[in-house]
Specification:
244 residues, alpha+beta, Glutamine Phosphoribosylpyrophosphate, subunit 1, domain 1, 5-stranded mixed sheet, 4-stranded antiparallel sheet, 11 strands, globular, Ntn_hydrolases_N, Isoaspartyl aminopeptidase @ Asp-X dipeptidase, hydrolase, aminopeptidase, EC 3.4.19.5
């Protein structure tokens, strides 16, 4: 999980780690979370120096009594084995130009967003994780759905693992990741039915867009979104498939 998400954090094409969206002040504030199917979870928010926030989130899960830490100190980042970077490392020229165009009220699309992954091993254990830089021109201290367990991320062995992306405020209000799980676990819906009905009830009604990836206890995988496009891929039994 950390290897997959960490690789995307290092890729400046995505809105996570280096290349993340910039705040109104032109700085980067990173969020990440991880959850295992046995109910363990860890998350970090408003991170400005950790090269791999997902690995810091894992450290929170495994080595502290907490679930969510905001602005974790440098000592904790180093204890997680994560490199501390100068904040300027995360800021790319593409993101600077994007923020300038947004502030000038010009259209400034960048198509790649929050990154996430879901995995199920041969024993049926499920883990989900995600990492993001939030949204361009956000206020300092803004926290979206990514580090909120149940909003952007959820995992339960035997049922489903989910990683979301989209309008973070709406995903928090709708507890989207947990709602999909609940519709499956308590309502008997399939993962496709649960995802579709959750988006209809919690996203479409709010005029919000986004998507999710999911892996179920029986090995099924799903991409569901109401946005114009979402990129994803999965590997199963040695075969890799890309979705657009």
């Amino acid at each position: 999980m950390c290897a997959a998400v960490g690789a995307l954090e290092d890729d400046p094409l995505f809105n996570a780690g280096r290349g993340a969206a910039l705040t109104l002040q032109g700085t980067v504030e990173l969020d990440a979370s991880i959850m295992t199917g046995d109910g363990q979870a860890g998350a970090v928010a408003v991170v400005d120096r950790a090269r791999s926030p997902i690995r810091v989130a894992r450290h929170v899960m495994e080595a502290t009594p907490h679930v969510l830490l905001a602005s974790p100190d440098d000592a904790l980042v180093e204890a997680a084995g994560v490199e501390l970077m100068d904040p300027d490392y995360f800021v790319t020229e593409a993101r600077r130009r994007q923020l300038e165009r947004i502030l000038a009220d010009e259209e400034a699309p960048l198509t790649h967003g929050t990154v996430g992954a879901v995995a199920r091993d041969s024993a049926g254990r499920i883990v989900a994780g995600m990492s993001t830089g939030g949204i361009s021109k956000q206020l300092r201290g803004r926290i979206g759905d990514t580090p909120i367990i149940g909003a952007g991320t959820w995992a339960r062995d035997g049922v489903v693992g989910i990683s979301c992306t989209g309008d973070g405020e709406a995903f928090i209000q709708g507890a989207v990741a947990h709602d999909v799980f609940a519709r499956m676990a308590y309502g008997g819906q399939s993962v496709a039915e649960a995802a579709s009905s959750t988006f209809a009830a919690e996203c479409d009604t709010r005029g919000s867009t986004g998507g999710l990836i999911a892996a179920t206890g029986d090995g099924s995988v799903l991409l569901c979104h109401n946005s114009a496009m979402m990129l994803a891929a999965f590997s199963q039994d040695g075969e890799t498939v890309t979705w657009v």
